[in-house]
Fold this protein.
Amino acid sequence: MRIIGLVVLAAILVLAAGFLFMRPSAEKREQATAAARGLRNAVLTREFLREAGSKHGVRAVVYDWQWGGGTASLVAFDDGSTSLYMIPGGGIIGAGGHESVRLAAAAFRDEGAKMLGQFHAVADYPLPAKGYSTFYIVTDSLTLSSGALRESDLNSPSHPLATLGRLGQKVITEVRRAS
């Protein structure tokens, strides 16, 4: 009986030690957060744009929303590339390689192009506060914002950007399924 107890105790200690060593350090978490913020900023400042514009003039649609302890940024580019950046740290890059993601992202971008009149030009890209979301539309020359939108308002079918929000959530679902 004592041997079994010692074996169980040793196994617990080995697992605990492994958990401590596998846990990312504060420095690595900070690096991951900086990387995710940098990628998001590169999209919103149009740094990622290299070629002439698309048929709609919309190069990317970005959807920022609060999740758990941070912000998620969905980015759907006009070339079919789709990524999900998580702040603090992490994300999925290149999800647009999956047909289901590519189709959902195309519908999301097309809806964003239809809604251009609901957006205004901005030069600052704050993360949304808890309970809020923000959409951005990136063109060759401008980044446009919906401004901060209450999640509760956005979930109302009567909100002008409700369809855009629903289509963004569909892209996120397809990204999760494909990952």
About this structure: The first strand starts at residue 58 and ends at 67.
